[in-house]
Amino acid sequence: MRVLIIAIGWLLAITAGAAELTDTTGTQEVYSSLPELLADTVVAEPEKPKKMGLIKRIIRGFDRLDERYIEPQHYVFAAMLQTTYNYERYWLRGGDQSLSFKPDRNLRIGPYAGWKWVFLGYTFELGNLNFGGGRREFDFSVYSSQIGIDLFYRRTGQDYKLRHVNFGDTDMSALEDQPFDGIEVGITGANVYYIFNHGKFSYPAAFSQSTIQKISCGSWLAGVGYTRHSLTFDSDQLQDLIDSKLGNQTIPVDSGLRFDEVRHYDLSISGGYAYNWVFAKNWLFGSSLQMALGYKRSYGDMMNDERGGFTFKNMNIDGIGRFGLVYNNMRWYAGASAIVHTYNYSMSRFRTNNTFGSLNVYIGCNFGLKKKYRKKS
Predict the structure, then answer these.
(1) How far apart are CA 39 and CA 21, in angstroms?
(2) Distance separating alpha carbons of residues 40 and 51, to the nearest angstrom
(3) Which helix (H) or strand (E) holds 32?
């Protein structure tokens, strides 16, 4: 009805104008004036809002989520204190001989600070506060609803012990749990992963405490990673230890284990699944399992080897597991998380596996309330 009334009004206006013009100027001017009359009756359209820049749209898209499932972060800054229990095992095999090294479990503690997506921290071993020796770890993480980035740097001390020694039929139990400082390990790397169901599933809710998962939900994950391992090994020191513990028995270390240093470079693609279980208000148990197919390239400096070392290229399967228990009421949070990595490298006369992980227990708070939440508080 409203459209009909407007149309009739336009028609009457045009007719009146046409009659007036016909009396004064004739028919020709009526038709030439119709477009102007129509233009005067058209309501001007409101100005369209300016388009958001491409980069700004992409950045905002990183944190687009469904608030029925996820409560977004209300604060800008975070502070946290974390203690870490580390686990590490290095396994070496050359020929028919195999060794495993593992340090005593140690307690580390350190502060962390967060700003929006970025979370930065440093942990150090209790009893070794000079930062110059012992084990060192540095972690840098960026989390959003869609994408996560982890950068890590780890350097061991010289506190390994021989845990298992297998030299065929010979009884090597005298070497078990013997201190061995002839091995040093370092790892540096980065992982980038994409969360497919990022609108409803919050990976940061379980592992960075920056959002709150309201309803249980899961998501597939996919990512890429790059890792560099370095292993320095003193096989002469191992031979001296064997000779001192076994007396008159002479058992030479296999040539496959006689190297000064091995460096592993690993480029991988990974896939897996993660699930957040909300079993009570503000409580969450999260788990994530990923398998990685890695392309490995390794270099070793063999002792007494005129060929100048060895190289090998191969593909191996690695794994990453994450588990987290969190209480988060947005202002305060506390919880525990466990992370386990395993890397495999192999060739015909030398194989190695490195498994390491950590159990983190933390407590922290968020502060610096965002503007849009100040009125609600």
Answers:
(1) 17
(2) 29
(3) helix 27-41
Residue ranges covered by each domain of the chain: 2-41, 69-374
CATH 2.40.128 fits 69-374, yes or no: yes
Smallest CA-to-CA distance from 184 within 133, 223, 219, 225 is with 133
Give the pLDDT confidence score for residue 59 in this predicted structure.
Answer: 58
Spatial separation of the C-alpha atoms in residues 220 and 225, rounded to whole Å? 17
| 217-245 per-position pLDDT tens digit | 999 999 999 988 888 888 888 888 888 88
Q: How far apart are CA 209 and CA 83, in angstroms?
A: 16
d(CA 129, CA 123): 10
Residue ranges of the chain with per-residue pLDDT less than 70: 1-63, 117, 123, 126-141, 157-158, 248, 300-313, 347-349, 376-377
The conformation of residue 347, written as its DSSP 8-state character, comes to: -
Give whole-number Cα distances, 76 to 114, 119, 334, 370, in Å.
8, 12, 18, 6
User: Over 250-269, what HEC string results?
Assistant: CCCCCHHHCEEEEEEEEEEE
